[in-house]
Amino acid sequence: MISPPENLMSLSNEAATRHLTEAVLQGRVPIPAKGLDRSVRIHPSMEPRSIDPIRELIDEARKRFDDAPTEADAWLAPRLHSVLRFTRAEAADSGLWNHLALRVAPDHVFWRHLGKATQKKPVPMVSRSRFIGPFHTQAFARLWWAAELFRDGYDYDPVVVACGNQDVLNTALRMSIVLHRPTAQALLRLVKDGTAGAGREANALAKAVNAVASTLSLETLAPDAEPDTDAYRFWVGGREDSLILFDSLPDGPDDGRAPLDSVNRLEGVFRRICTEVPAVTKSG
Amino acid sequence: MKRLFPYAVLAGEVGLEVLRARLDDVPIEFSMISAAQRTVALHEVERERWGTATLTVRVRLPKRELADGPWTNVACAAIVSERRTNVRAHVPLEQDEPGVWLGEVTLHRERHVNKAELIAQVSATVDEIDSRLIGRSEASWTIDLLATTPTKKDGIRTEWVDFGGEGAVHLDLFRSDPWFVEAVGEEPTLYLNKRFEGIEAILRSDRAVDRPAQNALASQIAQEVWTVLFTSVIRGLPKDDQGRPEWPGGWQESTLRKMLPDVLPDYSLTDALAEIVAREDGAGGDLHARVAHAAAVQARRTRHLGNFLRAFRRKAQEEEQ
Lengths: 284, 321
Known about the structure:
heterodimer; A: mainly alpha; two-stranded antiparallel sheet; 2 strands; about 50% helix; globular; B: alpha+beta; Immunoglobulin-like; 15 strands; CYTH domain-containing protein (chain B)
């Protein structure tokens, strides 16, 4: 039995790829921890941080959602965001996500993302991109980025809505329209109130809005306010002194909410789209 | 705005310029801004730990076209974005005089890692619809947070490493190789092996006599880089609901766009993408040979190898005489 690491480190893509053989992805061979540990590095700009609070979250998620791993996403995303407190620049470093997935919590990746056996692949396995992959696919990066892009200032409520809908997580998260906060918030309102609540509808709406955004400047129509970077930095600094709540949502960084006027205006625009695009409406 | 739009868009050029830049409110040297390269080199050795960068941006619009056209409520904005950090900041500019718009764009260090892209975008009311996009800058500017001189590099990130040395455990397996290409993750990297005798001397030489060998070697490395990049990109292509491949964005997409015309010259870019996936899944046929050819084109093999052989033979002849 190989003990988990003490601190969160950075693990290069190359080393991670080399050790993720098919046998490992199928869970037939344990994660080669020793080999991986020879390739880890300390993150250049980050203070050492213990993995304990992260492990605590992962274990609690497992306990709460034992039969329904998919449902763990909505619970885990805001809490993971709150525990990690990365800056955007840190979160862009895939090495941290690699280390999280391969060394800190590989058990979670297997539990949440083990595929089904198919005729082509009779032995179920985890897709490599859940361990090392783009921000919208990697097991932990997707949750962190969903929380970062879908939160409304300190309010993680919209994150729970977004992560409770796998189509929002899988489709909308990778679209650049959600980088505009009023757009993201207006979309989630329609998902939350059921207008585009089912997966297929949310999917169609996101795609329709994406198409509209190629000729319409949503950013001019519904201006965003600049996020308060000092408030974000203050929140990052409070990491050591925070306690993660299991039953109620934590508060995120208080860096300003998306302007209400803008969200309201876009909500109106998107409602019209819902009535015009048949796939979004329920009967369609 | 070259695509077709169901409303009037600008035909004239939208010109974008960065006039000045300040790091934490201290002006940076003018040499760090290159209009020719459309690059701002923000990373200065003397001021590595800066917090904010403020760029003064000027956009010039086709004045007469705007005055004569059907547009009202014209608005102009600068957009700073970086894919890796999912940052996209939209900054409205103010009209200074007809056709000239000015504004300040702020970048926060902890929200960027590598390079940010700066573009200008113009919107207006057309046919009673507000905020229609009617124009954007033809070429973007690059705000480089890592470079020290303002050059826009199309090349791959390159690192000199002793493959057998400490801290290079991930390269230990390849310790006797001259180079190694890592094509996973956000940015591909070319590792050059310091341990491999002669390679550093040739590649870093500034003697004219070494030039042909230097170019030939660089070309061979480049050919392998392109081959590895292309192969790894087509293996990991995202697919839509119907299983059709999608453009992956980032370096993956630019690799495809550069190479596909040489891999499948008879296809449009989009068709070539679908075809390549079909061939990769199936027998493959001559696909690998075609990829090797396209990589060689990118690496300018014909020219560099030709020059090297010519120089080599000339030298041999001189020695005989």
